[in-house]
Amino acid sequence: MRIKDLPAHVGEKVTIDGWLYNKRTSGKLQFPIVRDGSGYLQTVVFKKEVSEETWKASDEATQESSVRVTGVVRAEERAPGGVEVGVETFEILSLAAEYPITPKEHGTAFLMDHRHLWLRSSKQHAVLRVRNELEKACRDFFYDRDFVLIDSPILTANAAEGTSTLFETDYFGEKAYLSQSGQLYLEPAAAAFGKVYCFGPTFRAEKSKTRRHLMEFWMIEPEVAFLEFEGLQQLAEEFVEYLVGRAMDRCKEELKTLERDLSKLENVQRPFPRISYRDAIELLAGKGMDVKFGDDIGGDEETVIANSFDRPVIITKYPTAIKAFYMQPDPNDPDVVLGMDMIAPEGYGEIIGGSQRIHDHDLLLERIKQHNLPVEKFQWYLDVRKYGSFPHSGFGMGIERVVAWVSGVPHLRETIPYPRMLNRIYP
Q1: Cβ atoms of residues 308 and 279 within 8 Å
Q2: pLDDT at position 157
Q3: Distances (CA, A) of 66 to 34, 35, 92, 205, 392
Q4: Residues in the chain with pLDDT < 50?
């Protein structure tokens, strides 16, 4: 029996296997709180109603000891989940050593060194449950819309956007890289299936210590044949609205544990505001920021833009010079590309980046050369433009940033089970 299922079993005798999360004692009563991964359960041990062995076991059990509890489920609206168990037997399966993580304040470095144990804490547990729901929602969204999952390779011979931020490894005497993105491999698959997506780990060797960056993160990337720029923006809006709604619907208890202000999430309704890069530069200049056309929009600038709206905002048509080689130039303004970033509210930054792709072979070849990329490494990618080329678009969304935003946690390190950061690869 799982704790989350107990409300349907009031009046029945059940056995719960789990861990002692917390405990309080009041004379001849003990109230061990047991968790099993599905929820938290208040149990009640009344000395006069249990054996001496059961009382002793309950009394001696330490924080995070694994235990087995048997008793009758009864309604108790003040208890977690609205039920409690009147204990008949309480057994210690494994007595835990003194647990290093206690209710007192711990420093971040200490908690990260004990990440393998910190996962058990209520807020960390809640964040990763939100992540679990959002990952399932991503797959459901695309599956229900007839997208085909394509598993792009993690080891690649070429870079999606240059080699400066790649992790290099030896591949039997040749250079290989950990993937920055599955996008390039999705584009040929879009010619085979029409609508495709990939979902997997990606790696960026950026020497960044900001709260918005990890060296290893998970990204979901759709790619759609014959989808042009307007349709791409609509797909991104629909996707994000769906994800936020799904979390609010199915993660109520987790968001309550995280003390998330749900009014902020309730605003995430289509249509989202859209502004061009040129308009964004004007907005920032009007706020006193020193920016000009051709500058990249960094984290501080993203926050200023996001604070001007009450829901995610889409910034479109960035300068060609600062964007990736594969982005389609705007036919009406060749100085910019048909690219977009979606910026989350509340300072969480970019959550989606995408574009319409160049589908003209000669233009793409020219852009590869302009970026000083080895043409021979991209011959297969150019082939897609030789054999029935087609307009197509796609985007990438980092799961961790969306989990952080939806959960309301400040740093990406709490949104992935074992974060890889600039100075951390342990545990």
Answers
A1: no
A2: 86
A3: 9, 10, 6, 40, 53
A4: none
Give the C-alpha separation, 121 to 117, whole Å: 8
What SS3 string covers the chain? Answer: CCHHHHHHHCCCEEEEEEEEEEEEEECCEEEEEEECCCCEEEEEEEHHHCCHHHHHHHHHCCCCCEEEEEEEEEECCCCHHHEEEEEEEEEEEECCCCCCCCCCCCCHHHHHHCHHHHCCCHHHHHHHHHHHHHHHHHHHHHHHCCCEECCCCCEECCCCCCCCCCCEEEECCEEEEECCCCHHHHHHHHHHHCEEEEEEEEECCCCCCCCCCCCEEEEEEEEEECCCHHHHHHHHHHHHHHHHHHHHHHCHHHHHHCCCCHHHHHCCCCCCCEEEHHHHHHHHHHCCCCCCCCCCCCHHHHHHHHCCCCCCEEEECCEHHHCCCCECEECCEEEEECEEEEEECCCCEEEEEEEEECCCHHHHHHHHHHCCCCHHHHHHHHHCCCCCCCCEEEEEEEHHHHHHHHHCCCCHHHCCCCCCECCECCC
Residue 97: predicted pLDDT: 98
Q: Which of 324, 323, 327 is nearest to 359 (CA)?
A: 327
Rounded distance between C-alpha atoms, residue 187 and residue 361, angstroms? 14
Each residue of 55-80: pLDDT tens digit?
Answer: 999 999 999 999 999 999 999 999 98
pTM over 0.90: yes
